[in-house]
Fold these 2 entries.
Entry 1:
Amino acid sequence: MNYLKHLMLWDGNPQEITDNINENYSGGNRVRIKKINEIIDRDKSKNSTLMKIKPSPKKYVSFMFTIIVPIYLNVTTTVNRWISRPERNSEEFHNWSTLAVIYADFAVLSTYISISSVCLLCIFTNNITSRWLINKKYDNKYFNYLLSLLLIIIFPFDAWVFYKFFSIFFEEINNFDIVEGNQTIISNGSFSELNFNTYVYISLLYILAGMMIAVKRLRDFNINYNSQKEIKNKDINHYDPILISIVIEGLNSISGFSLIKFISWFRHQSVDATLDHIHKIKTKPESKDLKKQMDENFVFKIYIYLCILITISFYFFFAALLFCLSIFSFIHRIKEISFTSTIEILDWDKYQFRSFLAFINNILSLDTGNERTLKSIFMFLYTGEDALEDNDELKSQSNFKKLLLSYSIKENGLIQTVISFTQLTHKDIQRICIYQEENNFESIEIDEDESIEIENNEDIIPRP
């Protein structure tokens, strides 16, 4: 305090200022972070966790206009673009970039819809199967056999899809021919061969991947149930939180889906994401052993540096590819609504209204403020003073989210949980995780002339 008073001469009484700060900041006299058993307390009072994550009428309306309507706009416009896509014509201006954007949009949408749909179905099949597993012991080797079978089936799809896309991509690059300085001629290629069957294969690939996740989760449930003692079957949550989180993430992704978003990510989040990834690699326990081996073995050191160089090359290659696609996507979106400058708004047909609303939704989806603030509060809660996530801290965040999701499903139900968690904000997490004592004062008379104020606080146990 002797030093602090020299810093506060401009502002007032040092004691009053420090008391005011200690009253309201986390870790001070009145505000602290709750422990897990305080958050998951099965309390249903007004200020309980369940009431804080239960969707209000406002969230039901918001779910309709921020999730359902944008999904309709994105799906219908993306499918309509693919159906009405132009033929491959090397003489047509922007023909290659237009087709690239249409194919990429439809491919990404197919993956989101496929894995979200199969996980939604598996939520209910796993629910039924888990109820059967608690009444009958089942050997885990059967789950392993099923996983192996799915892996054998999925591998040809995986290899074919990657071969198809990359072969066409490199073929198109080789077909670029610069003539007379600025003129670009593109020879005929296999770009037009990306027909509907290609996307069926992509969908099957992600459907099988979703089935693998579901089977693995059932195996984990079986192992954990048989290894635990004194389990009350009535308290078990039979809805898998991982599958539900995939569905929630899928709904959010489809509602805000746009290749243009990569520009926003590149501008606002790419540096932080890269630094976080580097920090996770450095803080892995294996990294110390790897560094020791590199110091002892020069050939191994060269090998590691070559691997790093190749990884960085791939990273920048895909970053440049996605950045170019996002630029092409933005140009294509502008071309789609070019009618706004030539046709009066009252003369627009329903397709033009839908295209315009879809464009507005794409622009609004570039705002990643809620996503970034939500990530920031989790970093505040779970990262240390370096403000960088290591793998253990990231695992703690993931476990907390799964626990909170499972708690909400068990007590509030599946539908309410999906509505609430698709719109989860940093304010919801703060209300759930932060405890603040109320200032309730009462007067106790000592005698006729004196009285003192004491705080009516039941929590008399000192906090660490």
Entry 2:
Amino acid sequence: MNAGKAVLSASKQAIFFVIFLLIIFLGCAKKEAIRVQAPNGEGLKERVMAYCGYLANQEFDKAYSMEYPLYKKNVSLTQYIRKHTNSMMAYEGCEVSGLQEDGDDATVDLQMKVSVRVPGAKAFQHSKAMSEKWVRINGEWYHVAAEKKNAPTRDFK
């Protein structure tokens, strides 16, 4: 009788293991299918809006994580935070007004809303049209800072 229970127990474990693997593989396949079916620019627009939101909420560590890898090699998180907190300009938000993808490169046209602080005067709101470069690496979009030394290159390791 014990041998029968051992075989039954092993069978249950095998069935559980197969079901577990099916769930894992089907979940990954579903995620990949969703990613492939997304229209061009949809993932990028979400990423841009998240980046703008991080800047507006002064979550500079999260915005920094979305910067181009070569930029992060040259600019530390501390420098990045200092750059954004010592500015006379504070981000209030943005709207995407245009998006042009070319493979793994993209140009995003934005209407950036900022608050400008002038010493001795009341801060005022300003809306500024700008174009920003984004680069996709391993399926993830990264913001490319405007500095020339951080210009896009595929050799970022």
